[in-house]
Amino acid sequence: MEYLCLMKKQNSGRAGARSSQASRSKPSESRSSTNRPDSSRSKSKPEAGKRSGPGKKSDQKTNFRPDGPGGKPRGGSTFRKGGKPVTRQKPLAALGGPMRLNRFISNAGVCSRREADSLIESGVVTVNGEIIIQMGHKVNISDSVQVGGVTIRPEAKRYILLNKPKGFGTSMADAKARRGVHELVQKACKEEIQSIDKLDRESTGLMLFTNDEELMVRLNHPQSGAAKLYHVILAERVQPNHLEQLKEGIIVDKGFVKATEAEFANDERTHIGLKLTSSRSRIARRMLEELSYHVVKVDRVTIGPLTKKDVPRGSFRHLTEAEVNLLRMSS
């Protein structure tokens, strides 16, 4: 259904663009229109507004400059911010592939990348017994790297997918007072992991935990962040024009945010599917509350390509290497 809707929008956009070109390719008609009475000219004004078509409307919206961090337009290799094209970031390299030496040292917990550059320049870093002093040198995970004669190894990266149940908080302050999600993943690994974002205590669904800080930043990026699909249940019927409003964007707490997709999930129109790239706190719930709806339940169904398959409520699982690489390449 989503695919068909997308195709309809694309076809209507092409039709609008063709009609726009056809109207501009007839100069004789435009010149003759100047000899018509004022009443005919006033009638032609609405037609001029229509000639841009649906396809042109979407182009104009990308020029909007959002006020908040969670609603910047995305899609494709570039987007417009304040009228200036901005190129999307390059995807992260696949897990286990070659990495820069300074990153290898930083991942081992020795120091920051900038400080690692200074160590490399000073000649105290060796790779497989050879002193390396040039910047940008790449190493593999299997290489023997020493700093000052001490062999170092980067910390193992962990990726845990949790299906959060209702009644568990996600903030550290809340976890000290009541039950928190840390209780559900504390036995997942010995490394210290953090969630890429938060779900409020009453919401349920997927949460991703990792110690891969680079991936965390990418997944929460307003341009290339992972899309999250929410199943939202409301106490009253949702008006169709409000779904369009959610896709066009609204202001929530002085910040602009919009849904990339918004559709009805049942015939009664009390269930909707909402796809967002914003990582702002409780954003799915707050968007509907901003339109004066009473939200009964929010369940996060997907995070990027990850789904709730094989993850029962209250349980977790480790991501496969293929899933991690898919996340890294798509962010």
List keywords for this structure.
single chain, 331 residues, alpha+beta, Structural Genomics Hypothetical 15.5 Kd Protein In mrcA-pckA Intergenic Region, Chain A, Pseudouridine synthase, eight-stranded mixed beta sheet, four-stranded antiparallel beta sheet, 12 helices, 18 strands, 34% helix, elongated
Describe it for me?
The chain is α+β, with helices and mostly antiparallel strands. Among the domains are: 54 residues, Roll (Structural Genomics Hypothetical 15.5 Kd Protein In mrcA-pckA Intergenic Region, Chain A); 172 residues, Pseudouridine synthase (2-Layer Sandwich), CATH 3.30.2350.10. The chain has twelve helices and 18 strands. Strands 9, 10, 11, 12, 15, 16, 17 and 18 form an eight-stranded mixed sheet that branches. It has a four-stranded antiparallel sheet with strand order 5-4-7-8. A hairpin with an 8-residue loop joins strand 10 and strand 11. The protein is elongated, with a radius of gyration of 26 Å. About 22% of the residues have low confidence.
List the helices and strands and how they pair.
Layout: H1 2-24, H2 27-32, H3 38-50, H4 53-61, E1 78-81, E2 84-87, E3 99-100, H5 101-107, H6 113-122, E4 125-127, E5 130-131, E6 138-139, E7 145-147, E8 150-152, E9 159-164, H7 172-177, H8 182-185, E10 194-195, E11 204-210, H9 213-219, E12 228-234, H10 240-248, E13 250-252, E14 255-257, E15 261-264, E16 271-276, H11 283-290, E17 295-303, E18 316-318, H12 321-330
Parallel strand pairs: 11-17
Antiparallel strand pairs: 1-2, 3-6, 4-5, 4-7, 7-8, 9-11, 9-18, 10-11, 12-16, 12-17, 13-14, 15-16
Helix pairs in contact: 1-4, 5-6
